[in-house]
Amino acid sequence: MKTLSLTATRLVLSLAAAGIVGGASVGLVSGTPASAATPVATLQTAPVAAGTALPDFSQIAQRHGAAVVNISVVGKAGVEDEQQAQNRLPPGIDPNDPFFEFFKRFQGPGGQGGEREMPARGQGSGFIISADGLVLTNAHVVRNAQRVTVKLTDRREFVAKVLGTDPKTDVAVLRIDAKDLPVVPLGSAKDLKVGEWVLAIGSPFGFENSVTVGVVSAKGRSLPDDSFVPFIQTDVAVNPGNSGGPLFNARGEVVGINSQIYSRTGGYQGLSFAIPMETVLHVKDQIVAHGKASHARLGVTVQEINQTLAESFQLDKPEGALVSSVEPDSPAAKAGLQVGDVIRQVGGQTIVASGDLPALIGQTLPGSTVQLNVWRKGQAVVLSAKLGDASDKAVKVARADSATDQGRLGLALRPLAPQERRAAGLEGPDGGLLVEDAQGPAALAGVEAGDVLLAVNGAKVQSVEQVRAMLGGSTKSLALLIQRDGNQIFVPIRLG
Q1: Among 170, 226, 341, 401, which one carries the catalytic annotation?
Q2: Which of 30, 243, 259, 272 is catalytic?
Q3: Contact yes or no for 185/253 (Cβ under 8 A)
Q4: What value does the mean pLDDT take over residues 205-233?
């Protein structure tokens, strides 16, 4: 299971399906609407005591379970070096033992040392949305896949074609060569109510067509690094292998794709998250038509409004997205947005929490013009913004990186946003750069994306240009002061 490494006292966000895992052993991982004639199961209740009743999901499971599939993936996970190969030897064997070379040679491919490609296998879930073989699942289930196999409940297996994936929303669309397949009816997450019963079907730990039930705990949740998705939170038991499977409402309609869990241990602890079908179908339609999905970009950094900030900005209630920075030449800058503005509505839709803004903008097509209702210095202001393409930002960062001697150091850097600076516990307006990507010498030294670069050779860094200047001349090595999870360490880097 893919897990963000945090301290023991902090919660760990992990994908509900383990991504592709290395090794020869199997690692557990985790539209077109159905025809109007597709029957929808009717919720039955089973009396348990006078005046109380529990829902009976057996009809939903029986009627639509055949449209839920198991997905097996084979790909590449990387290479195994000499040390990793040695770690697979019997524990406690001494390199000087006469049997050391015997075990080393006969432990399988790659036992001669050096490096070898590692096979990668994974499992997840999915569901059929068209009788001619269109299947939905999570993007992380089929990431880096070379071969994807879809297995039906009648034991038939098909090699699937990945029509496209969208990592920003974690949605993937597959196609299998088959006809007259069972399909699931699709519903709307907008109609869900907190406390409503829901059901998940999937392959947790490889146990195919397993059914778990629970209730909707919340709607519109924003999770770290998933700002494009307003998640449905449930207490349905979701475990490795459930990723990509459907979340049904009590009427037997699919209202979401099970995607992530929130946990201290990496396993289910009562917090599961599903991608709403509105988001899924928006992405699916683009992938089917163009092979990829596009997302709009406004170009602002926003933060949450609490009661104190609401009073400071003369707001009647703590709602909206507070603009803490505006990217130069971005759609936001061209529209006239300013730091300190509070965005309260976009296209007539109210922004309650700050996470509502990126989720709403991200589901809009690039080039669209939206009306922004903004609160500025105690007064309401209406602005019009023509949204850009979220992929444009990555292109600009890449060009800037190539101009900052990335070939020598291998770091893609940018200044920290105010809220990122606060999260990192850094004081003062200057100092510190966020590592957006690490390659080459920096990656080999252990620097990772998400680290904060504080200093180079003891000198605090405030800009990318300053780092570029430090790379000039005949410098052969650098000592980078890196902060990660609140800890600081000098990382020595030898430049190639």
Answers
A1: 170
A2: 243
A3: yes
A4: 86
